[in-house]
Amino acid sequence: MSLIQFENVSHSYSGTNALDNLIFEIAENKITAIIGRSGSGKSTLVQIINGLIVPTKGKVFVLGSYLDYTKINKLRLKIGYSVQGTGLFPHMTVYENISLLGKITGMLKHDIERRTDFLMSLVNLTPDFKTKYPHQLSGGEQQRVGICRAMLLNPPIFLLDEAFAALDPTTKNEIHAELLKLQETEPRTIVLVTHDLNEAIKLGDNIMVLENGVIQQYGTRDEIVNNPQNDFVKNYMNHIN
Ligand code: ADP
């Protein structure tokens, strides 16, 4: 079964073709890494999944139905979204940031507290972080809070758009391990956009290589690494550290 399907999806920004006739399914409860150079169309693809961008052509199937852009807010509650820079609210504490969607959706206070504690411990944030403000945190800590916030409602889909791009290698490795632990503890359909090939190979069960809005290859990690289908992917794989 697939929670995300693209059927002949194209997108252009006033003449620039960003995605060209994409046809694919994303495997349920796996991590799918979308990899490609800057400008290859990765962000456009991920923003189409959560309805931030309406494609100029084609149909997008998410969580059992075709995207209805008039009802997108309800759907978004089922899609966790984490971006580089996290988008935390600066005037809210860590706890207020994480709990926000719980309050909005009428979750019980006790359940919000329990879920927050659980998620914070999964990403190795000690309870004293709850009363801190985003500016008092390191980049890695902010990114961890962003993950907790995105996971509060236990969404079946988690989209990460270059979420770890700004982190130093050590912090990046720590958060990678935490993401894998989260995935083991509560598996969900994760789409991870990155230009970092090593990150894609480390985290992705499946990998899609995009270039110029076209899929160059889409397969399991093993297929992409050991059996690149064309020169572009072959060349790309030569850049693994
Ligand atoms: P990536 O995430 O891989 O860097 P994007 O999806 O951001 O790629 O961009 C794909 C293409 O679409 C690029 O050529 C980019 O310049 C263009 N593009 C992206 N966003 C816009 C926009 N808002 N207006 C015009 N062109 C855009």
What is the secondary structure topology, with strand pairs?
Blueprint: E1 2-13, E2 16-27, E3 31-35, H1 42-49, E4 57-62, E5 65-66, H2 72-76, E6 79-83, H3 94-104, H4 109-122, H5 139-151, E7 157-161, H6 169-185, E8 189-194, H7 197-203, E9 206-211, E10 214-220, H8 221-226, H9 231-237
Parallel strand pairs: 3-8, 3-9, 6-7, 7-8
Antiparallel strand pairs: 1-2, 1-4, 4-5, 9-10
The structure holds adenosine-5'-diphosphate.
Describe the structure.
This protein has 241 residues and is an alpha/beta fold. The protein has a domain at 2-78 and 155-237: P-loop containing nucleotide triphosphate hydrolases (Rossmann fold, 3-Layer(aba) Sandwich), CATH 3.40.50. Helices cover 37% and strands 27% of the residues. It has nine helices and ten strands. It has helices at 42-49, 72-76, 94-104, 109-122, 139-151, 169-185, 197-203, 221-226, 231-237, and strands at residues 2-13, 16-27, 31-35, 57-62, 65-66, 79-83, 157-161, 189-194, 206-211, 214-220. Strands 6-7-8-3-9-10 form a six-stranded mixed β-sheet, with helices on both faces. A hairpin with a 2-residue loop joins β4 and β5. α3 packs across α4 (109-122) and α3 (94-104) runs parallel beside α5 (139-151). The longest helix is centred in the last third of the chain and has 17 residues, at 169-185. The model has no long low-confidence stretch (mean pLDDT 93). Bound molecules: adenosine-5'-diphosphate (ADP). The site of adenosine-5'-diphosphate (ADP) has 11 residues, from β2 and α1.
